[in-house]
Amino acid sequence: MRILILGGTTEASALARSLADRRDLACTLSLAGRTADPKPLPLPTRIGGFGGAEGLAAYLRDERVERLIDATHPFAARISRNAAWAAGSTGVTLLAVRRPAWIREPGDDWREVASVAEAADAIGTTPRTVFVTVGRNEAAAFARAPQHAYLVRTIEPLDGALPVPRLTEIQTRGPFDAVAEADFMRGQGVEVLVSKNAGGPATYGKIEAARALGLPVVMVRRPEKPAVACVEDVEGALRWLAE
What we know:
With 243 residues, the protein is an alpha/beta fold. It is built from seven helices and twelve strands. The strands form two sheets. Strands 3-2-1-4-5-12 form a six-stranded parallel sheet, with helices on both faces. β1 (2-6), α1 and β2 (26-31) form a beta-alpha-beta unit. The protein is elongated.
């Protein structure tokens, strides 16, 4: 069976490792290429886009793909839409792996917004020290509020994407535990955290830390995704393949 995994998440990486030794499967992992130095995985890997939904459909046909697994980031709405369209137009069976979103817990002080641009406005006009964890590609949205002091954590360097007077860049890769996150926020004098509701345990430490410190969180809600067959984790995807 020929399988294409649309990756870029911990779930996609775990699935790739689980399927690497399956002789009955011919699996390929696809990465968008937003991370310059992705961790190597034991599957043939292609990097880069397909050229939209029609390009993905052409790839599925040309490579005789039989199963398509969308294990992309919860905020990668475009590729998920493209995957649904391409699978539907080619007759390829599609499964989405969608980790559950974080849920507000007692003690959480969240202000939920629909976009990163709204998050920049939700911080307010009074200058504050803001810890931003929305990724490099959308950090520029905070240039509209240059009065704040920003600590921005990304995997890739910002390369000038956020031109504000007070900016501290933190270039690192998770996971991050709650104790370390609390120490960091306390030491830097963080007054508000900005996060996407990515779900999963790898970056949940910052949410736990904000709760423990009594800090407000501006939380960006997930975008809508296509209504397709889905599971919450790698185990569910493996069961689906077995069936």
